[in-house]
Task: structure prediction
Amino acid sequence: MSRMFTFVPEEYAPSFAARDYVHIRRGLSDQFFGALERQVDDYMQSSRIENYHVGDKQQAVYEFPNRADCDEFIDGMARICGLDAGQIVIAERHFKSYDASANPSPLAHKDRFATQIAVGFSVRVREGSTLVLYPDSDRASNPFGSSTEYRASLDPSQYPEHTLRDSQPVEIQDRPGDIVIFRGSSIWHLRRQPANTVMLYFKINAFHCDTLGEDAGTLEWENRTRRLAEGSNDDLRALVPLLARRVDYIHQRWTRDWQQLYGVILRGKPHLTIDAQEFEWLRSMDGRRSLGEVLGMTDHGAVAAGACEKIRRLARHGIIDLTPSPAAADAHPVAVPARIPKPALLHPRTTSATE
Ligand SMILES: [Fe+2]
Result:
């Protein structure tokens, strides 16, 4: 018995597969929508993200009422979007409330890299408020951690107000209780006449990316990784490593006198230097290979103690996650631990400029 949705997810899968977006009218059950409508003002008062006032709107972190609702959401999105439910990370879950004075004609943007899929639950929508999508033009993904960084990286000739001039937009005039799903990091989009609109937006991906640390399973991954990293060298060899969820990006840079440097950046944190060998290890971590394979060891070879210490350091710095065994990883390459509720706003300082 569905608590959240009024529809069968598979009915929308072909449309999403063909167009990369779907609009589900009255997709939220009266029960779930009624609760959202009642909660929104409390959320905006109690869980508002401080110092966040970008794009004429306030934001607050949302908590699912219980685990069953969270699981139903993940299951529904997996079935519509063709993703493995076990791999879905909820990288953001924010109420977004536009000011009365919000710009009626904002610029188009693409959501940050982690937003493989954007899911909007429409809560309050005034007449004329319209979600505008450009699914047929310039579908390169935003490689950055915010829409602001992406725009700043572009030449003015690449701005969407130029490149989309001859493109045909899709205009979605959603109503309260509707659901809109689209590929947020690769589709240019905007909300026209957004004043007083309130949305509950989820940003999800299936590639183990949670730079803000908002997914309920991320803390569990981090705790487990720290515990496993302290095992013996032999135990380490059997573990399966992958880039940690909080890694924003990895870079290779040169000074002006051409000294080469590799580094890893966790969101909001400074550059952490790694060496060329660690850089190559990170590149080969796919969530399936064991550490023994990543480090180039044969089944019977010993893992060098120095290599193990380097791996422990990467784990302690939050650069890699570890999962128990190749067998488990083969079955569930990025298996998500049991989802547990956690308090809102665990990381308020880093929750800024997320779009
Ligand atoms: Fe967006």
In short: The pocket of fe (ii) ion is lined by residues 109, 111, 184, 189, 355 (CB under 6 Å).
